[in-house]
Design brief:
mainly alpha, 2 helices, rod-shaped
């Protein structure tokens, strides 16, 4: 049996493919939102610091006092 269209698949398989496509789209949107939010946070100075960056800032603050 050779299928020419997805509409020839059984409804249960069509439903699974729809859910898989939706999950892939949601994943792509979440990944792109994450990078966009990170870029905006870095631009306005709210980016997350690594532990070593945080320690370096604390040391700089202590030595400036």
């Amino acid at each position: 049996m050779r299928l020419k269209r997805l509409s020839e698949l059984p409804p249960s398989i069509q439903g699974m493919l729809d859910k898989l496509l939706l999950a892939a789209l949601v994943l792509i949107v979440l990944i792109s939102m994450r990078s966009c939010v990170r870029n905006v946070a870095d631009a306005i100075g709210l980016g997350t610091l690594t532990a070593s960056e945080h320690q370096a800032r604390e040391r700089a603050d202590l030595t400036s006092d």
